[in-house]
Specification:
The structure is a single chain. With 191 residues, the chain is of the alpha+beta class. The protein has a domain of 63 residues. Helix content is 44%, strand content 21%. The strands form 2 sheets. A two-stranded antiparallel sheet has the order 1-2. Strands 3-4 form a two-stranded antiparallel ribbon. About 3% of the residues have low confidence.
Length: 191
């Protein structure tokens, strides 16, 4: 074999061997294909903003709420267990208090109920409110008088609890009379 042919075969073989080693090294060190996550410019809002981002093969969606939560909540509790002997041997106190407030981000406390478009009075005029208050008062007095005259003598003679039942009867007459006065007022007036 001729010497230049021998050197040409060795050179070509060396180049092919080095290329194979390089390809193998590239395949061994190759990182798996990574999914490129898009850059999302999240809007800057109030301190109470919330975001919900869902990404998939077809793209992504963003849900943005500027004042979330619109109603904030605060919870407080107090548990007090005292078992201290008092002056006369008693003195057990077991008190549990629970307070839950809702308020807006501006700090306005929710007092309950829906204010709506008409305001706090529910659309009633001052005259209607005054008439309803007067009717409730008059009805409560009439209901108490009727209950005291009719129910109290019937229940006061119950052994052991007659005095308590008489008070309940008077309160029942008061409540029924107040409700009846309000109903009569709403039927008579245009409120």
């Amino acid at each position: 074999m001729k010497p230049y042919l021998k050197w040409t075969a060795i050179s070509v073989g060396s180049i092919v061997a080095i290329a194979h080693i390089g390809v193998l090294g590239h395949l061994v060190r190759r990182e798996p294909d990574r999914i490129q996550v898009p850059t999302i410019n999240i809007p800057r809002g109030t301190p109470y903003s919330s975001y919900k981002i869902e990404a998939g093969k077809d793209g992504y969606t963003i849900e943005y709420k500027a004042n979330d939560p619109a109603i904030l909540e605060s919870q407080r509790s107090l548990i007090l267990d005292k078992d201290k002997k008092g002056l006369f041997g008693g003195g057990t106190e077991n008190r549990r208090e629970w307070r839950r407030d809702q308020f807006t981000a501006e700090g306005v406390r929710n007092m309950g109920g829906d204010v709506g478009e008409l305001g706090k009075t529910g659309g009633a005029s001052a005259e209607c409110i005054a008439a309803d208050a007067g009717a409730r008062s008059q009805g409560a007095m009439a209901g108490s008088a009727v209950a005291t005259g009719v129910l109290v003598p019937a229940v006061v003679n119950i052994p052991y609890i007659g005095w308590l039942a008489a008070g309940w009867a008077a309160l029942l007459g008061n409540n029924i009379g107040s409700s009846a006065g309000s109903l009569v007022n709403s039927a008579i007036s245009d409120c």
